[in-house]
Amino acid sequence: MLVIVLTFLHNLFRSRHDLLLENLALRQQILVLERQIKRPEFRDRDRAFWIVLSRFWTKWENPLRLVRPQTVVSWHRYLWRKYWKRKSRPKEMGRPKIPSEVIKLIRRISLENQIWGAAHIQGELMMLGHFLSVSTVAKYMVKRRGRPNQNWKTFIRNHLHEIGAIDFLTIPTITFKTLYIFIVLSLDRRRVVHFHVTRHPTADWTSLQLLQAFPFDSAPKYLIRDRDGIYGEEVLRTIDHLGIEDKPTSPHSPWQNGYCERMVGTLKRECLDHMIIFDERHARRIIREFLEYYHKDRTHQGLDQETPSGREVERPEIGPVKSRAVLGGLHHRYFREAA
Question: Which of 2, 75, 238, 278 could join 47 via S-S bond, C-beta 3.0 to 4.6 A?
Answer without folding.
Answer: 75
